[in-house]
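Entry for thiamine diphosphate complex. Fields follow.
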Amino acid sequence: MMVKKKKLSKIFDYFRDEDPFAGGISICSGCPMELLLRFMSKVLGKDIIIVGTPSCSAIVLYGQNIGSWHKLSYYGCLMTGVASSATGITRYYRKIGKDVTVVCFTGDGCAADVGFQPLSGAAERNENFIYICYDNEGYMNTGVQRSSTTPFGAKTSTTPIGVARRGNETTGKNLPFIIAMHKVSYAATATLSHLEDLAKKLIKAKEKKNEGFAYIHVFSPCPTGWGFPMDLSIEVCRMAVRTNYFPLWEAERGKFRLTHKIKKSRPLKDLVRMIRKFSHLTDEEMGMLEKEVHERYRLIEGVTQMMPLKETP
Ligand SMILES: Cc1ncc(C[n+]2csc(CCOP(=O)(O)OP(=O)(O)O)c2C)c(N)n1
Ligand code: SF4
């Protein structure tokens, strides 16, 4: 009997180098940010300089006790100055004629709040580096505080559920859209359930950084801070895409394209019921969150029609 040879997943075709990270890293099990770091380095290759900040990722990048957990070049920076430091490092290497890829790797607390001004400045100047923000919708490393990307209604340690407050009262800042509207060379959203989409965007960011600023905003749910079992991380990512909670798109110089269109979206409740930080929501509060998600989707759908980006072969 002929045994059919199993085809390897296409994803291996995107890997340039081995995983530069050690095994057994002491970070929460099931954290998508760790998977992102490993995946990113395999796709971008080892000729990168990572510029990072105090955050959950510093545990992996800066290291603990015995030293760092990887073989990459890493510059540990203040939360306020990551994009300015990356600007200096990039310009230095360009000046001496060395082709290296500088990659800022930060959480949403740094990107959207504490380090937003230098990020916006670097985007506006269209500096030649990559900025990757892993968005776990809060300051996780310091105890799950709210950030400006925390969505409406979410329970965090600074937006608790009680008599006076019922979770986060504001709508989350749409950071990837704000950066795209700087008309940078490249901006995109991505997540860990759609690996081929993520790999293509990383490769494109590496090419586009020769023309100017390249930004990727990665949805990175946090099992510890959000309250869901660690083996559901990728399912949460997938459901966020299927419900249009986190649409996948890319933009080049202010022109937009959806990279993964959802034919029939799932109800937002299918995502929300997986996550404890939303478990208190009343029907009315759920309606307000749905409105936020719907408006955000309508916005991106609208710009893909008004300012379309043609698909590159
Ligand atoms: C200017 C400044 N403010 C506050 C802190 C304290 N701090 C250390 S880690 C951290 C959380 C960072 O949050 P985020 O960037 O979202 O990354 P995450 O912890 O979620 O991985 C904070 C606030 C700091 N190091 N520097
Ligand atoms: S607290 Fe959340 S973001 Fe931080 S390492 Fe744990 S799972 Fe990852």
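NOTE: Residues 132 and 216 are 5 Å apart (CA to CA).
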